[in-house]
Amino acid sequence: MTQPQFAIAVQFHIAPEHVEAFKRRVIQQATDSLTKEVGCLQFDVLIDQADPNTIFLYETYLDATAFETHRGTEHFADFTTTITPWVISKSVTRLGMIHSSAVKS
């Protein structure tokens, strides 16, 4: 069992006319990250029930180095280039793991 030691939480506020395209593209990013990166253990995409223009990501990684590797991938660069014009605001929180119930097999 691999336990994550690092997590990232990202909140995006998306321009309303781009929300559907953003959702499609971020789901592809989640799939790419999980299938192409050994160190990416979880990549959840969530929507604010009170504000459908606000999307959250919760990602766990083996460690902070695995997250930095993630940021250097071609799919991360393509994702960032694609979604940047759609984003009104973005906040990122880096988190150290105390306990996780999620495990990648």
Molecular structure report:
The chain is α+β, with helices and mostly antiparallel strands. It has one domain: 2-Layer Sandwich (Alpha-Beta Plaits). Helix content is 34%, strand content 37%. The chain is built from 3 helices and 4 strands. Helix 1 runs antiparallel to helix 3. The longest helix is centred in the N-terminal third of the chain and has 18 residues. The termini are close together. The model has no long low-confidence stretch (mean pLDDT 94).
Secondary structure blueprint with pairings:
Elements: E1 6-14, H1 19-36, E2 40-48, E3 51-61, H2 64-71, H3 74-83, E4 87-96
Antiparallel strand pairs: 1-3, 1-4, 2-3
**In angstroms, what is the radius of gyration?**
14 Å
Structural class: alpha+beta
- Name the overall outline: globular
Low-confidence stretches: none
CATH domain class name: Alpha Beta
| Main beta sheet strand tally, sense and closure | 4 strands, antiparallel
Overall strand count:
4
Summed over residues and divided by their number, the pLDDT gives a mean of 94
- SSE topology string: EHEEHHE
Counting DSSP H or I runs of 4 or more residues, the number of helices is 3
